[in-house]
Amino acid sequence: MRIDVLSIFPGMFAGPLDDSVVGRARSEGILDVRLHDLRAYASDRHRLTDDYPFGGGSGMVMKPEPFFAALAALAEQWASRPRIILLSPQGARLDQGGVVQLSRLEGMCLLCGRYEGVDERVREGLVDEELSIGDYVLTGGELAAMVLIDAVARLLPGTLGGPGSTVEESFNENLLEYPQYTRPRSFAGRPVPEVLLSGDHAAIRTWRRKQSLLRTARRRPDLLMRAELSREDRMLLKELLREGALAEAAGLVKWVLAGDQGAMVSL
Ligand code: 9D3
Questions:
Q1: What pTM does this model have?
Q2: CATH at 213
């Protein structure tokens, strides 16, 4: 996959994309990240990429010309036009489903905004999709672009985590992970749960599934409501209810087990 990035701070991308899974994907030619300094495409002699907002107000707005000039220059290099994505707080929230879809593209071009925002003509004339990485305020789109690249890179064919572990992943979709342990068997007076040392693989699988359900119910009830629950899952949730393990999540789990969510959502 080729990813072009337009930013006035291309230097920000140095560290995060150089090591580990992303670094390997790049050195193996699975991922081709091309950083472009937006300032190089500014039209005025001061190479300004921002200006005052029409209508007044505080803060600066990114000028449209550098984005248009940069994309015109890049169009010469592209065999086909990649998906052009603006990272912005007004974008749709990126989630793992969106990351999977993006990972199937041949290429993307990421536009990173700065200041208070980007001239609307950039959206109207250039952008295919606008994405946010969450409801908190960053200083610009660069870190969001790096998050997107990191999440997409690990799914590319040939990288660790690439299409392959999908059967297990879809099974675990919308559930949090179970607690994990490694050596030593006892640390700081805390032993590893007995079942994990038992060698009873069926019992281990059931314990892990139950822990996943417990964690998800207590920490992320929003995910539990979307999870595809098997008959065994329902049984495990009933056990957790009976054991009083669900605490404040008990009400939600009773509602999930009642099984009328489809009706509720369609109302
Ligand atoms: C005062 C209004 N602000 C909107 C919440 C203006 C504003 C703040 C921060 C405009 C741009 C930015 C810079 N942020 C991004 O460019 C950005 C972002 C983010 O702040 N949060 C989550 N995802 C993203 S993607 C790009």
A1: 0.94
A2: 1.10.1270.20
